[in-house]
Amino acid sequence: MNEINSSPQREKWCGHEFLFKFRGFWFTQIYLEATKRVVETFKPLPGDVILASFPKTGTTWLKALLHSIIHPSPCHANHPLTLNHPHQLIPSLETDLYIEKWREVGGIGSTRTPQFPVVKDPEKARILSTHLPYQILGDILDSSDCKIVYVTRNPKDTLVSLWHFMQKSSVVEKDEWEMEVAVDQFCRGVVPFGPYYDHVLAYRQERFNRPEKVYFLTYEELKENPKFHVRKLGEFLGCPFDQSENGEEKIDEIVKMCSFETLSSQQVNKSNELPNVFPLPYSAFFRKGEVGDHKNYLEHKMITKIDGVTREKFHACGYMYGI
Ligand code: PAP
């Protein structure tokens, strides 16, 4: 029996969910099935832009930014981001394109043809997103000339964001996923798409290997200086902003349109409707959008525990991030 078909190791996660191990990373069953389909069949096009991230590290924000940079649109009532949730504009490989709709979980195993976005202008890139680690997707990404944008976030804020997200999910009944348990699982890497640390380090290494193809940034850097990163992303993606006042204005507009304040106040993003492919409402992707919110939720001993792992995994190999 090959690796794709063999029974994977499993561990209890939260609610009634289990996580299954595949190539060193953990997945819920539905995402594991989708991941295997991605691995077996996905072929990126040379011009694709792949937004890669660990969950809750800034994916929604980057989706809004990348879409605005590649498909600029003047700010008006019909702006794509006033009509669509960022997740509707940029589909995800394993949680969208290659998944059986969550409402039809019983249908796992049957195949449906992924509905890739059609880009009418050949000059424009197709943008796709993924939470899959480089350890699983790397060979596929390397086989094409696509570009990768990777965003990461302080591990403690990432965990706290994930914890809140799961509280809104039907998977967790109220108070059922204790923070202490969540911290322990995060530190052991047993969370969807985890281990977080291995996920971050592999994309970071790839940035060093192929800087012209991989743009690596942190949520905190983006908060600190969004204009700088929008300009840099424009250059990286081959759609640079000019240095004139006009270029500056365009950057300002994008930063404002994609800010937490603007996006979270759009009707579509406040909606309690469920996206087609996800058992959580659109509004669940916008909570606080702050740096350092973990201080309001993690006890001292939890912080010490996560910082210990951060030192061991990041600092020991020279990546002085996350504490
Ligand atoms: P996903 O992986 O499920 O798509 P993702 O978008 O990566 O989630 O992370 C959600 C976090 O980004 C939330 O953080 P919080 O829980 O700490 O608040 C969400 O509020 C935040 N977020 C969403 N959009 C923005 C934005 N435009 N600017 C800043 N933060 C944002």
UniProtKB/TrEMBL annotation:
InterPro entries: P-loop_NTPase, Sulfotransferase_dom. This is Sulfotransferase. Its EC number is 2.8.2.-. The keyword Transferase applies. Keywords: Transferase. Belongs to the sulfotransferase 1 family. GO terms for molecular function: sulfotransferase activity. Residues 47-317 form the Sulfotransferase domain.
